[in-house]
Specification:
The protein is mainly α. The protein has helices at about 15-30, 35-50, 55-80, 85-90. The chain contains four helices and no strands. The model is unreliable at about 90-100 (pLDDT under 50).
Length: about 100
């Protein structure tokens, strides 16, 4: 019996960047939104768009799957960053939080 390989197609950097940008836009709407919630909202939007364009059900699922993969990578990136209090993120310099740069 021949060995079957699973082909993994690399994602286009432009597509990955567009998905990541959409997820980050949802995150920017509210500090209460989590990366998984933003990813789910983005996946729903991408899937709806594909359905409106008449894509096949498998293509719609593939689009959602791709969004969730990018969201998982973004989640890992966010989890690896140190937590900075919101008061320190608004304006100011890194050396003097709250002071104008």
């Amino acid at each position: 019996m021949p060995f079957l390989e699973t082909l993994v197609f690399p994602r286009a950097p432009v597509l990955t960047a567009a998905i990541r940008r959409d997820i980050l836009a949802v995150l920017a709407e509210s500090e209460a939104v989590t990366v998984p919630a933003a990813t789910a909202e983005t996946a729903a939007g991408w899937s709806a768009r594909r359905r409106r364009l008449g894509d096949s059900p498998s293509s719609v699922l593939s689009a959602a799957s791709l969004v969730f993969q990018v969201g998982a990578e973004l989640f890992d990136d966010v989890a690896a960053q140190p937590v900075v209090p919101a008061s320190d993120r608004r304006g100011g310099s890194p050396c003097h939080p709250g002071a104008e740069a």
